[in-house]
Each structure stands twice: as C-alpha cells, then as structure tokens.
Specification:
Structural class: alpha/beta
Number of strands: 13
Mean pLDDT: 91
Distance between the termini: 67 Å
Low-confidence stretches: none
Strand order of the largest sheet: 5-6-7-8-12-11
Shape: globular
Order of helices and strands: HEEHEHEHHEEHEHEEEEEE
Largest sheet: 6 strands, mixed
Number of helices: 7
C-alpha cells in the first residue's frame, strides 16, 4: 500500500512539474469591461504586471503581437517588470517598454522590486536611477505617487508607491486612513480615478481613498490555482489569499488583479498561466 501511495505522490509531483513548465512559458489574454458614469468615451487599456524580466518569444515578439492585435488606447504597468538583483539584469524589461513606447502611451506604476532598488542604491549599484533614466528617455515618466489626467476620456491615473512595511510577510500591516491622502493627495473625484497599486492587499483602503478602479499584481495568481480554493500562496506567505487574481468589487469601486506574466524566487505556476489583461472603460448610460 505504501508503495502505491508513494507512486501516486511521485506521479502527482511529476505532473505538477510538467504543468508548471507549460504554464511558466505561456500567457492567456483576459478581458474586463467596467462601466462608469464618469467616463466620457470608451477607453481600452492593456495591463502588464510582474514580468520579472521574462520574454515571451524572441525579444517579446509573442507578447507584442498580442498587444498590437488588441490595439489599446494606453498601457498600464502595475510594477515588478524587473527583478531586484545585482548586476543590472533588467534589459528584457527595458526592451519591452522601449518597443511599446513607440506605439502606445504608457503609465508606469512601481512595484516592490523597483522600490527595493531605489531604497538600497549602493547594494544595487545605482540600477534604479539607471532604469528610471532609460524609461524617461523613452518618454515614460513613472507615476510615483502622482496623478495625471486624460481629458479625452475624463479618466485620471495615479501610481502609488507605498512603504516597504506594507509588504511584510505573514501579516497585513495596518494602514492608517490618513496615509494615502498624505501620500497621493486627493483623488480627482469628477473623473474616473484609476489607481495603479502594486499590492491588492489594501483594496479596502484604496476605495476609502477614492479609487474608482484599482489595478494590481504582486500575487502571481497564488503560484498554484486550485478549484474552488483559488490561489494557494501569496508573496507575504499567506495561504489561500483573499485576492489572488480576477475582478473584485467593493461598493462603487472595482479592482482588476492581474496574475502577472513572470515568476521569481519560486519559479512555479500550476494551472496558473501568465496573464495579459485588457480593461475597457465604458460610459454608463442611464436606463429609463
């Protein structure tokens, strides 16, 4: 009996490894539509998150081909396009941004990996400044606790970069209600306010701040996705996280959480392929 059990366990492990090898090297396109009475005209965004220096095909050819077929009005980046590591290993992230910047307007929000490089410049040998300088040279101005307005659509886009304490493992560090207003200023209430917020863990706090739409990443879909239970493990080492991927609602606010495009540290994705996310904002018409 024990031999049978061990054989079954071994077969399950091998199957998971094969699925992971498959899921780590493919992505799917998922689409969401959000209606808002603040939106002036339809606006289509592609959301990229957690690339972690991965490339789908030579020089991102598979990913760029899919984005071009979607033909978005703009690209939202929810952070961690690179992995914080010594050696300036971020050329793949820059290559994707460089190619997309010639086609689309890009609104780049920082993740915890970009922020980590900023906090420890000596350890990362100035990689953050170099990365941001190259983005700026492409015409991409990262939104670091800044808000920008798109008058054609009556949409505002704010990129948040919260303190590292909010990425602690094993617990959700409490966020005071005054923190986001002090960090970000006030939302643009008469416009559809998008907040690029890398971690979804503080969705409730983002809605209190005034975000109509939140776009996030960070969780990588929970590494493995199980039926009913969803994602298994979050980056802060929480089992079966409340937010693993998909669309979430709270009051009048909507969060779109990408399962990301790459991996790091734990290079595993099981039943959890990478995601290219499409978000279309639509004017909400009253029904009489």
């Amino acid at each position: 009996m024990m031999e049978v059990i061990l054989a079954c366990i071994g077969a399950a492990v091998i199957l998971c490894l094969l699925i992971s090898a498959w899921d780590c090297n493919r992505f799917i396109t998922v689409e969401y539509e959000i209606e808002s009475d603040k939106v002036r005209k339809p606006c289509k965004f592609v959301l990229l998150s957690d690339l972690h220096n991965k490339s789908y095909g030579k020089d991102h050819e598979r990913l760029i081909k899919e984005i071009d077929s979607i033909s978005p009005d703009a690209v939202l980046v929810a952070g961690d396009m690179l992995t914080a590591a010594k050696g300036h290993a971020y050329e793949k992230a820059l290559s994707l941004m460089r190619q997309l910047s010639t086609r689309y307007k890009i609104y780049y929000g920082m993740g915890n990996h970009e922020h980590r490089m900023q906090m420890y410049p000596e350890y990362y040998e100035g990689a953050y400044d170099d990365f941001v300088a190259k983005l700026t040279g492409m015409g991409i101005e990262p939104l670091i606790n800044e808000n920008t307005y798109l008058p054609e659509y009556n949409v505002a886009v704010c990129g948040s970069q919260i303190d590292k304490c909010y990425f602690k493992k094993f617990q959700k560090y409490p966020m005071d209600e005054s923190y986001l207003p002090k960090l970000l200023g006030e939302p643009k209430e008469d416009a559809c306010q998008i907040l690029i917020a890398h971690t979804p863990q503080y969705f409730e706090e983002y809605t209190v701040w005034g975000a109509d739409v939140v776009v996030s990443g960070h969780v990588h879909g929970g590494i493995m996705k199980l039926p009913v239970l969803g994602g298994v493990l979050s980056p802060n080492m929480t089992l079966f996280p409340k937010y693993d991927g998909g669309k979430f609602m709270r009051g009048k606010s909507t969060m779109i959480l990408s399962r990301g495009l790459g991996t790091h540290t734990i290079p595993v994705r099981v039943f959890n392929p990478g995601e290219l996310v499409v978000i279309t904002l639509m004017p909400k018409h009253s029904h009489k």
